[in-house]
Input
Amino acid sequence: MENLLLTIDPDVVNWSRAQFALTAIYHWLFVPLTLGLAVIMGIMETCYYRTRKEFWKTTAQFWQKLFGINFAMGVATGIILEFEFGTNWSNYSWFVGDIFGAPLAIEGMLAFFMESTFVAVMFFGWKKVSAGFHLASTWLTGLGATVSAWWILVANAWMQNPVGCEFNPDTMRNEMVSFLDVALSPMAVNKFTHTITSSWLLGATFCVGVCSWYLLKKRNVEFAKQSLKIGAIVGLVAAFLTASTGHTSAVLVGKHQPMKLAAMEGLYEGGNSQGLSLFAGINPFKQPDYMSQTEPPLRIAVPNMLSVLATNTMDGYVPGIKNIINGYTTNEGVVEPSLTEKITRGKAAIAALKSYRDGAKTEENLSVLKENMKYFGYGYIENAEQIVPFIPVNFWAFRIMVGLGSLFILVFVAVLFFLYRKDIASVRWLHWLGLSLLPLGYIASQSGWLVAEFGRQPWTIQDMLPTWVSVSDLASSNVMITFFLFLVLFTAMLAVEISIMCKQIKKGPVL
Output
């Protein structure tokens, strides 16, 4: 590992990152809709179980068909995504395989089998099992998908905040010392709750969009109204839960990934009582000159709100990019070293490890390694530019996500108002607005993941392993070829899914 910095072709890193990003983006088109529709179809079938009306059975079956189409695509892209850890990121997999592999193995053995078992009952058991057992199978299918997401998000959260592990210099691996610390870390719990509630929100926007199309076409009006009601209620609840978990996420990011928070805010120079930027003149295509400016041009901010968001106090200290590079003191009184000192300590850890591996297995080398292991990854950093993520993506993606979330709340409120107070079938402007939620829901969801993953660059594992030390020793041409092969494959899969979904929606429920 100590020599990889000198031997890995930068093009391999770039193409490997691009390929993984491509796979993750396509995969995330399918996963949140699966999780969101699981709730929608579960509520629909619960209504059937309680009323025994054929209307609700047909309604549940319609949403289950859309769920099934999307579910199959998500499984296919997810399998490819997991294989890429071994093919493109073998050094990463070796370095942390004992930890990272555990939640993924549990996800594969427990959650996936749970989903696949009950999804068969849900689709083919309407006339073969009792209504109660079928209802349970529908909810357990959704629960299986949710449990699957839990273990995947545990693995992702560990990359954002590595806990419950110790580095073993004899095996050159990080080894798990506490499974509970890994599985139940605050970062993992929050990432799960925020991701799941945002997926419910996407499922609700999808439901509202489809129902709005039926109302525009004046088809299946009663079906559209009833589904619209459930979709809007689920969406409104999910939106507020997502906002709440998002606040908790900001607190954790401020504590464990301050550079990500600074990039999200375009915060060049921090301090106490920081305001939350509503707008700033940040070029979306160019990294700003953050070292020579105190703040972005044209910045409009809500006073003190960033401090509230990140520290739960009006006057809390929030470090900016320059503070993180130069060193600062946290609200808890902990002195964070400057980047220069972190690099020095990281290089000391790498040198001690190299000496130990070369045969000098002394207590001195072990002591130096243990003392500086926290900054191990910084030993591969050469300058400040390498630790600052691309600010425009983080800044604007965060605002797109929050802005669209606020719009969704307004639309859900309007839908419920016209459903209960007026004849919504005649409010065509609201139908068009509801239909627009179909693409906007995906844009908001993808924006959230852009912030999460772009914001922690250059780290594969926060502060422990940069991307250029994590990749496999491959020819860049091989990765480039598979990138375009996957691009064609995933685009074809998406086109097939959209085609099948549109045909099913045009066909409509058989009432």
